[in-house]
Please model this.
Amino acid sequence: MKLLARPASPFVRKVRVMVHEIGLGEQIEEIMLASPEEMVSEMPKYNPLGKIPALILDDATVIYESKVICEYLDSLHDGEKFFPAEFDVRWKTLLLQGLADGIGEAVIIAVMNKFNRPEKFVYEPAISFQLEKVERGLLEVNGQVSDFDKLGRIGPLSVACTIGYIDFRFPNLSWRDQNQELAKWYSAFCELPSMKATEFIPKK
Ligand SMILES: N[C@@H](CCC(=O)N[C@@H](CS)C(=O)NCC(=O)O)C(=O)O
Model:
């Protein structure tokens, strides 16, 4: 299998961490697209939405959307499942994944509005609108941290990848002050070898 990816994406990281955790690394070749331009030209060939990640199976079937890729990968191992079958746990972990992914998407929109355009087109209220979603989302997640060990694995993993992306894009966002439980949990989660192996360290 081949994973089409870029190193900083929180959605790609979710898939990569999971691949490490379930020990499937040998079976998946990571193809890191070299630039945003390459992504724009290449990705629509695999995903009509033009987005990474996309997983190309050995029979050339393409799976996109990180949540779908992760659930597919979960069917390939016999260890503790990221998407539990039991309904009560399943819907909670899916909801947490949805919230975490939504926070990540808000960060991406804020980034597009802030950095990827000429100064005169930067509209601060549009950025604040997205960062308010991030703030509300993290507060909600913070309230669930004490239940994380009962919540199924994909939700917390999605949270960790989103936070990694927030810290990369908006390092001055002081989310830790308001979300101390989450900050403590995140710092411990980052010690996992799978998180360390997939950490994006921007070039200075
Ligand atoms: N819902 C998608 C989101 C993926 C996504 O937004 N990927 C970004 C990179 S982090 C992307 O490819 N953006 C390019 C674009 O929107 O054209 C998923 O979970 O896979």
